[in-house]
């Protein structure tokens, strides 16, 4: 029952990323950092959860014996212990450089009630008791790491507990006998509790926290086309000021999962501590996403006459292309045209300080749609280059974006079945289509965004987004209302 507060704290702590990794580790695609401010948030959140959980904690029974003159040894049992009041007076959560975290509670108080019984031969006496336990201190150190599947691990490195004072009030038939030995009973109770506290912590970690971490998802399906792998590529790195954890951050196709043919660039995080958490998203994340959607054919566009705005002076029709392709109207009179657009390769984003750019190279194949059949005749093929500027922002849990043209489309004729083509005029037409059809369609997809790998019900505020060399850096605070 004590596992859940530890799960919450460790889940919050594992929001993180690296500015330096162990030798041989892959560069991360996605990184997150928790600062001392974020650690303080985790402490408050963990204490709030612990207070809610204390009423459900099952305390262990304990027993002992004492001697009463000629009666000799008498055994006693205290059972059905229940916490009625708990005061969490002092708590702390600190980073342990190169190892993990230490959580501690100091000078705390608990009021417990329960039942007792005494046995001697065939005689059994019973009753109730109240116990006040003051000066409770607990310190637990966790080592953080990762397993072979890329999931985080946590293990108890050290646990210490102490109790300042115990006062027992025993009532019931012949309770005066037990009260004669209350100091001995209180000391026994104190020794047992000091042993049981760390035993319960270790058992809780082994039976609840560790299995919980082993079930954390490291794959998230984004849609019907692609998913993202955000397994850890290295163990969390800890200093006295920050906790950094590296995530793979690689997109893959739903029907295939081959490694990307390029590596993630290094991420050099600046020394920033103003926000609770920082997220660094490498251009590698966006470029593996581009690769996945390109291989799935989701970057291909087909433009038909019906897609052209009704008020456009130029239609995808041979009659509108007389001045662009003089022979076209004679070869295919009164015929609609169709344009197929596809990238030559997956377009990649490039991050430089303050800028996000994209330089796609497209193939455009033009077809004549024969009115008497379902066939279409290939007409010509163009190569298109352009420079696109991207704007990337973050909502509470998703990365979203939009694109605008950084330069006009530039056309190059690759092949023609209809001889002469006025490429300059075709350029003007395609720039119009790009502005009114292609960019709006692409922006609609980008507005849906991609989810940040955050724990459930975690929300961000005070967002600050910066573009650095090779990566975006998002600083944020966690929603204070959550705890």
UniProtKB/TrEMBL annotation:
It comes from Ailuropoda melanoleuca. The N-terminal region may be exposed to the interior of the granule, whereas the C-terminal portion may be embedded in the membrane. During phagocytosis and degranulation, proteases may be released and activated and cleave BPI at the junction of the N- and C-terminal portions of the molecule, providing controlled release of the N-terminal antibacterial fragment when bacteria are ingested. Residues 33-256 form the Lipid-binding serum glycoprotein N-terminal domain. Residues 271-476 form the Lipid-binding serum glycoprotein C-terminal domain. GO terms for molecular function: lipopolysaccharide binding. One of its GO terms (biological process) is innate immune response. Residues 1-20 form the signal peptide. Monomer. Homodimer; disulfide-linked. GO terms for cellular component: extracellular space. It comes from the Eukaryota. Disulfide bonds join 159-198. Belongs to the BPI/LBP/Plunc superfamily. BPI/LBP family. This is Bactericidal permeability-increasing protein. It holds the Pfam family LBP_BPI_CETP.
């Amino acid at each position: 029952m004590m596992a859940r507060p530890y799960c919450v704290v460790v889940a919050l702590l594992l929001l993180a990323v690296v500015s330096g990794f162990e030798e041989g580790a892959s560069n991360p695609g996605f990184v997150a950092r928790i600062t001392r401010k974020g650690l303080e948030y985790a402490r408050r959140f963990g204490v709030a959860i612990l207070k809610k959980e204390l009423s459900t904690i099952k305390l262990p029974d304990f027993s002992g014996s004492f001697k009463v003159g000629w009666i000799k040894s008498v055994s006693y049992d205290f059972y059905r212990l229940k916490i009625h009041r708990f005061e969490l007076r002092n708590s702390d959560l600190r980073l342990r450089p190169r190892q993990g975290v230490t959580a501690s509670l100091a000078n705390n108080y608990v009021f417990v009630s329960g039942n007792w019984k005494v046995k001697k031969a065939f005689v059994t006496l019973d009753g109730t008791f109240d116990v006040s336990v003051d000066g409770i201190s607990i310190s637990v150190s966790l080592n953080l790491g990762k397993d072979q599947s890329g999931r985080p691990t946590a293990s108890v490195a050290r646990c210490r507990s102490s109790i300042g004072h115990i006062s027992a009030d025993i009532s019931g038939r012949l309770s005066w006998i037990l009260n004669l030995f209350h100091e001995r009973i209180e000391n026994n109770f104190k020794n047992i509790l000091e042993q049981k506290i760390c035993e319960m912590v270790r058992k809780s970690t082994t039976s609840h926290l560790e299995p919980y971490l082993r079930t954390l998802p490291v794959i998230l399906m984004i849609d019907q086309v692609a998913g993202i792998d955000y397994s850890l590529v290295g163990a969390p790195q800890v200093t006295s000021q920050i906790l950094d954890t590296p995530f793979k951050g690689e997109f893959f196709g739903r029907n295939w999962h081959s490694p990307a043919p390029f590596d993630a660039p290094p991420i050099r995080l600046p020394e920033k501590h103003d926000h609770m958490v920082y997220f660094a998203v490498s251009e590698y994340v966006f470029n593996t996403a581009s690769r996945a959607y390109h291989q799935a054919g989701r970057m291909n566009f087909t433009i038909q006459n019906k897609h052209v705005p009704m008020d456009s002076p130029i239609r995808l029709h041979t009659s509108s292309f007389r001045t662009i392709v003089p022979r076209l109207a004679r070869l295919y009179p009164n015929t609609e045209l169709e344009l197929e657009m596809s990238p030559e390769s997956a377009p990649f984003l490039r991050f430089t300080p303050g800028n996000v750019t994209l330089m796609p190279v497209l193939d455009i194949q033009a077809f004549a749609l024969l009115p008497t059949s379902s066939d279409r005749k290939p007409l010509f093929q163009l190569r298109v280059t352009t420079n696109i500027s991207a704007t990337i922002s973050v909502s509470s849990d998703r990365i979203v974006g939009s694109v605008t043209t950084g330069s006009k489309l530039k056309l190059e004729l690759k092949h023609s079945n209809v001889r002469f083509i006025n490429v300059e005029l075709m350029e003007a037409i395609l720039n119009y289509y790009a502005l009114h059809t292609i960019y709006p369609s692409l922006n609609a997809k980008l507005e849906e965004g991609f989810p940040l790998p955050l724990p459930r019900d975690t929300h961000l505020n005070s967002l600050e987004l910066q573009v650095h060399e090779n990566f975006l850096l998002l600083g944020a605070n966690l929603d204070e209302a959550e705890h």
